[in-house]
Amino acid sequence: MDKILDFIEKHKYGILITIVVHVALFVYFQLATYKEAILFEPWNFTTANDEVQDDIAITPDQIETPEERQLFNPQEKVTSFVKDQNDSRTRSLKENVNYTSSFQKSSAEQMENDYEQSLKDEIRRKREERNARKAETSAGEQKVDKKNEDKKNDHKSSGSSSEAVGGKTMVSFSLINRHPLNHNDWYVRNPGYTCGNVNGTVTVSISVDVGGVVTSATVIDEQSQNASACMLQRAREYALKSRFNYAGDAPKKQEGTITYRFVYRE
């Protein structure tokens, strides 16, 4: 304690000067701050209601087209028929007509022969797949029984119209010189009411073998509009279920498309 007091007594003038200098600096800076003036510009109320200019540029591709507006129009007239986009028959908008995607020109005997050939091709394809997997199963016989049952159901379908359906349909396809199996549009089924109350279109690229079986299906994004995840899933699923006629002169892998239109349903 004595040492501290001796130190203070010895340096009391230096300590005093240091304190005075710090106090002086503090007072100076405080006074200098008060001298600074803060100016506020008066508010001109005459421009308060002036409209602010919008400098956002709108390009032509951002403008909604009539086709895009129709996707959200629940009152749009869309029929549940299947349309062949390559059908050369006269298009008609008549109501109460049993429109089909193809005109049945073949004789009953020729249709039977085509169908039997498609069954043979299907059985052969399934047998090759089973041999490749080395699986022993009786699925071949079950497939034949199922096809025979489908064949009986096909004969219950009514005849086709000599005119093709006009306007927009929920299903349309493009597959050159091919038609749904046995001229029955049930083989290109319609998922258009399975994804809720929203409009949209999905186009699927398909590959079809000689027997008419759809071997692959891929969604074409650039040709689809307002497509939800449900629509994309349903479109691919139903495309793989589609079945076309047997054509011995067709390519082993024929390319085509199916377009599904999903519509608003009240």
From TrEMBL:
Transmembrane regions listed in the UniProt entry: 12-31
UniProt entry keywords in alphabetical sequence: Membrane, Transmembrane, Transmembrane helix
Bias (Polar residues): 95-110
Region (Disordered): 80-165
Highest taxon above the source species: Bacteria
Compositional bias annotation for Basic and acidic residues: 84-94, 117-157
Protein known as: TonB C-terminal domain-containing protein
Record organism: Brumimicrobium oceani
